[in-house]
Every structure is written in C-alpha cells, then in structure tokens.
Amino acid sequence: MASLDQIKGKPALTLVLAAPRGFCAGVVRAIEVVEAALARTDRPVYVRHEIVHNRRVVEALRAKGAVFVDEVSEIPDGAVAIFSAHGVAKTVIEEAAARGLASFDATCPLVSKVHQEAQNHSRAGRHVLLIGHAGHPEVEGTLGQVPEGAITLIEDTAQAEAVEVPDPENLAYTTQTTLSVDDTAAIIAVLTRRFPAIRGPAKADICYATTNRQEAVKVIAPRVDVLIVIGAANSSNSNRLVEVGRAAGCANTFLLEDAASLDWERLAGVGTLGLTAGASAPEALIEELIAALAERFDLRIEEAGAGEEDVRFSIPKALAG
Asked: Which of 62, 92, 186, 317 counts the highest number of beta carbons within 10 A?
C-alpha cells in the first residue's frame, strides 16, 4: 500500500543558499595549522581555547589528537602550543616562550592586522578606541597588544556618544573583524563627528568574509519566509548574520547549530527557505541540513548573494615543509 507521502507527495520548498557561506580563509588556515602540527610532530599538541567557534570542528580535531585547554598553564612541558584564530594577548605568547614551549600562532592574518594597527597607534602616542564586543576572544587579544589603559572598548553608538578621551587630537579607532558592517558604520559615524581628528584604518578592519556573508544575507533575506544561519551560539560572525537577516527583511531568521537541533514545526507552511552559515561552520553542516530537508520536502535549490571567494592564507613555514 502506498504511504501517505506517496499519495500526497512532499510539500514543495524552494531553498535559497547564500553565496558565499561557511568557512573563510582564516578558519581554513587555523584548522590546517593544527592538522599540520599533529602530522609533523610526535609531541602532544595543545590548543589554547577553541581553535574556531564551532563544536564540530573542535571535536574533529580532538579526534585526531589535539587537546584543548583554557590557559597556557595547563599545557605540559615539552608539548606544542597553538593559539586560536581569534588571536591572543602578548602575555599569552610570552608565557609560552618563558615555559620553553614550541608554539604556533593560528591567528587569522586579518586579526593580526588589527593587532598591528593598535600597536602602531599606541607607539605614536594615540589613544585607541576599539569597536567590538566585551569578552570576545578577539577583543581580549587586541586589548592585550598594548599597555593597560591605552585602549577603550566601544560596543555601541551610546558608548561612542559618551566616551571621554585623553586627547581628541591624538586618537584612533580599530574594530573587531566580525562585527555587523552597518552597526559598525553607525558607531564610526558618531566617533568621526565627535572627534574629527580621529584616525581609522586605511582599509576596513571588518574582514572580507564577514562583509561578503552579510551582503549575501541582505540579498536573500527579502526573498524568503525563513532564514536559517548555521553556526555556534558563541560565534560572533554567525550571530551578526542573524541580526542582518532580520534587519534586511526576514523577521524569522534564527541560528541553528546543526540539523539535529532543528524544530521542524518552525518550517510548517514555509514555501521559501534561506540558508547560510557563519565563517567557522563547516560545509558538512549545510549538507546534512539539505539532506534532512530533502527527506521532508520536494526541494528546488538555487544560490544567490555576493558570489564565491578565492582567498587563501598560508600556514607557518615551519609547518608547511
């Protein structure tokens, strides 16, 4: 006897995939650093903090032998230390060096650019206003590049309106790389209005991958009934995609860790679904959700957005040989 699905057929669903989506070059490089260290040394490999903000990535590297810890003090003598893609304070690197640990820095080169900017401004006698989110590992790393008190964190336009600076004529700003492009522009507008002499980066600190993924979401959000962003709850760039999706016209935009976490009732009656993934979410998570959707819907899949990316960052030479 035919099943009810066979009689009625699956409901139709148009799935609009954002392009680009998922892994960025900085995340790929960070994972390659850990994998190369595991392949090229007999010593245990320890990673301080999550190499990127995604449980699937961390679990895969742990299965290959990587050990994840919160602090350098937890790394035993003789082991290899790796610092996450988010970057670390100078004191963390100095602690590892003082311990005599072999270490490799998986910091995204675009985060390292922000570190260098903060250092250059501080050496030039400028106070730095860092636009970012308190407590985020990337922000903690940037704060740790200069002497205490040399940077003030700005999280929103209200703080930008209220901040007092030691010398408005010797002032600069930098930003976290994974912020909302529009929100950051609003904060910068306040700062430049209040402090006309403030110096900014020659090229925007928000990274190309964050910008491109947000632009893709802006393209598809007005077209879809629901927009799913695959990513971790502690992923800044993934959470910003949710905010951008809602602001761009899809009120029903939400973050999803993986296909197993989806409440299917949220898709009841949906005709068009948008799908993207944060820069630290592997494509396998997208593929698993598509497979789960195909079991329940008659899918028609298309892509839309800002196009593909071809950026690649090399790993340290000591690991590439």
From this structure: 92
Is 288 a residue of the active site? no
d(CA 129, CA 14): 44
- Per-residue confidence (pLDDT) for residue 8, from 0 to 100: 63
Assigned token pair, 80: 């290899």
pLDDT of residue 321: 67
**Could you tell me where in the chain the CATH 3.40.1010.20 domains are found?**
11-23+208-305, 110-194
The active-site residue out of 138, 140, 257, 283 is 138
- CATH 3.90.76.10 fits domain 110-194: no
How many CB atoms are located within 10 Å of the residue 301 CB?
13
CATH of the structural domain 11-23+208-305, one choice from 3.40.1010.20, 3.30.70.260, 3.30.750.24, 3.40.50.300: 3.40.1010.20
- Residue 32's alpha-carbon distances to 40, 48, 107, 110, 277, in angstroms, are 12, 16, 12, 17, 20
Q: What is the pLDDT of residues 231-243, one digit of tens each?
A: 999 999 999 999 9
0.70 surpassed by pTM: yes
Question: In this structure, are residues 32 and 314 in contact, taking their beta carbons and an 8 Å threshold?
Answer: no
* Residues 16-44 pLDDT 10s: 999 999 999 999 999 999 999 999 999 99
Helical axes 55-64 vs 25-40, angle rounded to 10°: 10
3-state secondary structure of 273: strand
Residue 302 β-bridge partners: 16
Q: Tell me the backbone φ, ψ of residue 157, rounded to 5 degrees.
A: -65, -30
